[in-house]
Amino acid sequence: MALSSEVMQPEQPGAADDAIDPLQGVARHGAWHMAAIVVPGVYTVLLIAYLLRTLGPEAYGIWAAATALVGYLTLLDAGLSTTTARAAARAAAGEEEAIDQVRTAYGAYALLACVAVLIGLLLGTLIPLILRLEGDIAREAWLVAAFLALDLGIVIATAGWMGTLRGTRRFREMLLVNSAQVAVAVLLLLVLLPPLGLVGAAAAQPVGRIVGRSLAALILARQVSWFRARPRWPGWANLRTVTAFSLPILAMQTATQLGVGTDVIIVGAAAGPTAAGLYAAGAQLSRYVGYFLFPVLGVLLPSFSTAFLQRPEAAPELVRRAVLLTGLIGGTVYGVMAFQAEPLLRLWSDQSSALSVQVLILYALAWTIVTPTHVMMLMVIASGRHRIIGAIVLAEALVNLVLSIVLVSMMGPVGAAISSFLVILADDLFLLPVVSARALRTRTRPILQGSLGGALGGIAIAAAVTLLPVSGVEGLLLRGLVAVAVLAVAIAVVVPGSRALIAGRRRSG
Description:
By secondary structure, this protein is mainly alpha-helical. Helix content is 81%, strand content 0%.
């Protein structure tokens, strides 16, 4: 894809913008964003398989330990990624204050990257102790962690650039950036792994990242007039503003980590590793689908941010359309998973124990509820009135943690999944819609009608495709394709202005 040399000017709000549907083109953007996510995701999966087959489980154990330890430093993002995407969308619409916020985030990211690399280097010294390594293998483990920490530092230092690509709806360019990164990393991996082993594999990661992010900087410099790659010291006033906006988002991210990372541990502590494995087989399948689906839905954030800047009076109607749309999507995707739990698990993990099936069904129902709520919270973030949401979501995670421990002790391993379902049912179906409606200055009832109506419609689609007289892997694939086709028709018929979802839209810089 050729890079345009045209320097695009910020699009000014005006009468012409009022005629543009805020949801225009989101289906196209979502498809490009999905592709941009899939490329590095597939690379990661294949890299793990390659390391296991080439170097064996012992060497991969070092890689996995380093990745796990360094991975916790991703919390240093501190909610800035979402903040940057929102501010970039508003900057692209002509708001001067938002440009200052984006540049402040760039400076904050540079500082956080230095902190991440230093902490990562220190954490790397723990790997030989944890794995009881000595001599050359211990030094190799530290070098692996050091290169992965450097890679994470590059990710954090340039995360603002990727947020700007998202905020200005340059999702095709994100795909180009990620593809370049993966291509260089794969080439270096094949060259460096034979002579250097695991260290060579680790060294390939930051080099590929540098190439990809340098391309991102080049794209932004040529297409976005206010982009500056060189970070500047964020003034204290701007830093306080950005931090105040980002901290509630950090609370949401922390809550997600708590919710995702504790239930398997609780089950394992109470019932042993076998139960934990069977539980994880059901829980992780629905979560992995969410890892792809929710970033795709995240393309709505720039649209919401621009809408609140240019047409705040349209927010009530916009949120109703958004929750109806995403309710249909969530109900269909997770409804199919619930109805097809047993064959999906056999395909996923070569088993379909009662525990795994029960957990998958409960989590699929929970994520059905979460999907429209997630988009509703994106809209609250776009409005800038999200402080209370962060506190509620963090409290939800803590309540779920305690209730999971109690129910597992009373009911066995499935109690953790029941806890998650009950807490999400109470919070995402009742409490958060009420709070979000107040933040968005609209009524709660239309939001609930859109969320529930869309979710029930999606579940009905999932139930209908279950009646198809097919079986096996081919049957699963056919049901999935039919469900997607019926979902597209349902969106076209039920969601107001659905034709705009696939329409093109001029991007601004």
